[in-house]
Amino acid sequence: MTVEETRAVVTVRYWAAARAATGVDSQTLEVAVPTTVGVVVEAAVAAHPALERVSRVATFLLDGRSVGRDAVVADGASLEVLPPFAGG
Amino acid sequence: MAPVPDDDAATAPVGATGLPRARAASDRSAPPAAAGIRWVGVGVTLVAAVALLLAATWGYAALLAVTLVLALAVAWGWPPVAESHTPDATSIVLALSAVAIVLSALRDDLEWLAAAVAFGILVSFCAQLIRPPQREGLVLTLLASFGGLVVIASGTSAVVAASSSTGAAVAAVGGAAVVAAVAADLLSGVVAGAVRDERAAGGVLAAVALGAAVAGAVLVGTRFDEVGAGAAAVVGAVAGLVSWALRRVLVLQPAVATVRGQVGASVASVLVVGAVLHTVATVLA
What we know:
The structure holds two protein chains of two kinds.
Chain A lengths: L2 H4 E8 L1 H7 L3 E7 L2 E2 H11 L3 H7 L1 E4 L2 E3 L4 E2 L4 E5 L6
Parallel strand pairs in A: 1-7
Antiparallel strand pairs in A: 1-2, 3-6, 4-5, 4-7
Chain B lengths: L1 E3 L28 H4 L2 H20 L1 H22 L5 H17 L9 H17 L8 H24 L3 H22 L1 H7 L3 H24 L7 H22 L8 H13 L2 H11 L1
Helix pairs in contact in B: 2-3, 2-7, 2-11, 3-4, 3-6, 3-11, 4-5, 4-6, 5-6, 6-7, 6-11, 6-12, 7-9, 7-10, 7-12, 8-9, 9-10, 10-11, 10-12
C-alpha cells in the first residue's frame, strides 16, 4: 500500500466566526484514511486552537451536504465549517 | 494528520485519480444561509414580537398576559443559554419569579417590581442552599438566574408603561421595531459571504438592523397619534438594535443549538427591550 493510498487530502473552508478563529478562508488537511468529519475537525482545531469553541456549535457541510461528525470523508472532499450566524 | 499550506480555491490539489477534487462547495462566494440560521430562533422572535405588538394595541390585560407567557418561556429557555449548571432548577426559580414579577404590573407603576425582583434573588440563593455542598458552577448559576430576572423585569416594565395610551403606542412601535430588525438575521448569510472580516460583518448587520427597525417603527408609529415620527424612530433604533444585538451575542452559545436555547435567547431578545420602551414612554408622557 503506498503512502498516497493511506492518506486523504481534504479541503476545509471556514465561514464567519470560524474564519475569524482560524484567520484563513480555507486550507487543505492531510489525514489518515479511513477518516470522518470529526477527525478532520480535530485536525483543524489542532492547527487553530481558537476554532475549538466555534466547532462545537458549527454545522458541517461535506461537498455541500449537511453531515454529522461521524460522516466518512473521502480523499479530495470539501468540508465547510459553518457557525450559526443568526437566530439565537 | 497535518495541515498543508493554506490554499485558496484556485490552487486545489489533484486527487490520486488524476481528476480535480470535488470543488463545488468550496467555490461558493457566500455561505449557504439556511444552514447558518437557527430558524426556530428566528420564528420564535417573530411570533413573540408580533404578540407583543398586537397585545399592546388590545389593552393592558392582553399585554400582561402575553408578557407572562413570554416570561415563562424565558424561564424555560434562558438557563442553558446562560450556562447554568442546574438549568432545570434555575428554570423553576425563574418561573416562580416570573409570576411574581409580571403580576407586580397589576399595579400601574413600578412600586412592586423591585420587591418582586428581590423575591427572585432570594429564591435564587435558596435554590443554591439545597444543592450539595460542592455547588459546582455556583457563580455562573446565580448569574444565569439574575440575568433571567433582569430580562423578565425589563419586559414587565413595558407592561407598566402600557397603562397609558402613550405607553401602549410606544410598546406597539417597539414590537414593530423588533420584528423589522429580524431582517438582519435573515441577511446574515449574505453578509457573512460578502464581508470577510467578522467584526465588519457585525457592523454591517447592525446597520441593517438599525435601518429596518427605524423603518418598521416609523411605519407602525404613523397609526398612533401619541407617538410622533421622531419618537418612533428613536424607539425603533434603540429597541431594534438592542434586540438584534442580544441574539447576535448569544448565537454562538452551545445551548443555542437546541430548541430550548433558541426559545430562551429569542424571547429574551424581545422582552429585554421593555426597559427602553418604559423609558421612552415616561419621557413622552
